[in-house]
Amino acid sequence: MDKVFPQTTYEGIKIHDWDKWEDPFRLTMDAYWKYQAEKERKLYAILDGFNQNNGHLSVTDARYINVLKLFLGSTPPLELMAARGFSMMGRQMNGAGPRVACQMQAVDEYRHFQTQIHSISNYNKYYNGMDEFAHQQSRMWYLSDGKSFFDDAITAGPFEFMVAIGFAFEYVLTNILFVPFISGAAYNGDMAAMTVGFSAQSDEARHMTLGLECIKFMLEQDPDNLPIVQRWIDKWTWRGTRKLASVGMMMDYMLPKRIMSFKEAWEMYVEENGGALFKDLARYGITIPKCFGQTIEEKEHVTHQSWIGFYMKPQATPFHTWIPTPDEMDWLSEKYPNTFDKYYRPVLEHLDAQEKAGNRFDNKTAPMNCQVCVSTMKFNEPGDPMEMCFRESIYQGEKFHTCSDHCKEIFDNEPEKYIQTFISSHQVLQGNCEPDGTDVNAADFKPGQNMLDYWKLDKRALGDFNGSEDQKNFAAWREQATKN
Amino acid sequence: MTMLKTLAPYEVKSRDAVENYKGKQLLYVNWERHRMFSRPFVLALPPETLFSVIIDQYMTDCFSYHPDWKQIDWNTVVWQNGNTPFTPDRNKSLKENGIGHKDLIRFRTPGLDGIAGTGY
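The joint structure predicted for all components is written out below.
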């Protein structure tokens, strides 16, 4: 059997009896198709109704549409990667229970990938910056973190993949992605995205249970599995946390009508719910992820740091950025009493004044990135919000920089993996990011001169929200829809 | 000691090895306590590049947007290469200043702590 299923042993996980796998759902394929078909019928009825009634004009204001642009680039492509990953797991696992469950999850993930794109495709008829998300996914600097997250998971063995995606992402962190996205869509009048979110969330419940079942199965099969599983939980909870910084930024800065702050969401979904989960797992010897303390400190900082990082690159994203209005800044002061006024309000007000004086911030330089999570190196030293956090490792004589102790530890554990990381700004400087037809051997070749063409970035989608075509069109169309 | 497990021998090269830069090397620059710029920037330059070029051209182009830039007293600037303090010579090259591939130059401007002293 080992020759047919070599992947289930090489990671060091010991399984003695695959029949002990308990399928918590006992769902047959036949019933699965029936349930899912019913969900699809309801979903597409709502999407059609929304689209036919010009639903896009009912959102709070046109800034909201930038949430969809960010989501479209960052999430559906990762759903597709999850579909690929779970298809592989369906082949690699040797037990009927996990094989069928992984196969169903693969189909679910493919469904999420499609329905998310379908719901946003209607906006693509009216607004800029959405049409090249598939091209941009493997090329744009700010999408590298998510791509790296899934590339790392899918190139691991099946059990690590299950801990990475099935447990750390789906169980510990998924609520912080989906609940704010769904509620945010609902609060801002986007019934299409809201319905897609709800339709997906009903699958997520099954995914969470699969992830948890896999953890328990490994821990019950052999005590030697514990340290391996613990290391994966530590690793993937941290990698997921870094990935979610941009979701938090969406909640705090991009939704015109806010649901709750990222800090509040983190407290509810991760500290309380996640904390309770780890208490349950304590009987197997599992301890709370190492990074937990740092995530609690960072919840008051990361969204502000992320938004400043995006705001200063108006020529390098297919969505618009802006400075929050005075009443939005007051909301941030109220939600972040320890940090917003002390560290972030003064710089945002300064940048606002600069923009109004015709001197909007545009940092044209290329970023330094973390070798592991591929985030730009923008996080603060733990305990000191004024200082940047830098860590470095030397491997085979070369320096590698990481953003945190946790990313450094991940690098040091498996350097062979992370020395291959695709860091967009480095690849540009090597001459590997040029539009088709560029002669990189020409005497006058200078790398990185045609990034907009390489990224296929629509010029209308660039720049500040103020003055954008989206802003003007939305105002004009809404006026037509509501006045004579 | 690596913890990587593989099904077969696994030999890979660094994607950012210095030989991939055709005679150049990577250099990162960060202005400490001026986080308005969000993160350090990266350059690929020949090791013969004079350090004055880094300051007068690349750092000035990027950082002069900040109101603190004009206030800098260059005699008091504190430099680090990574975590190691060093004193660069403007008129010497990166190589002569001991700056290698993927080094991170951090500079601190005492008394200047960003907008309203926030570190930004």
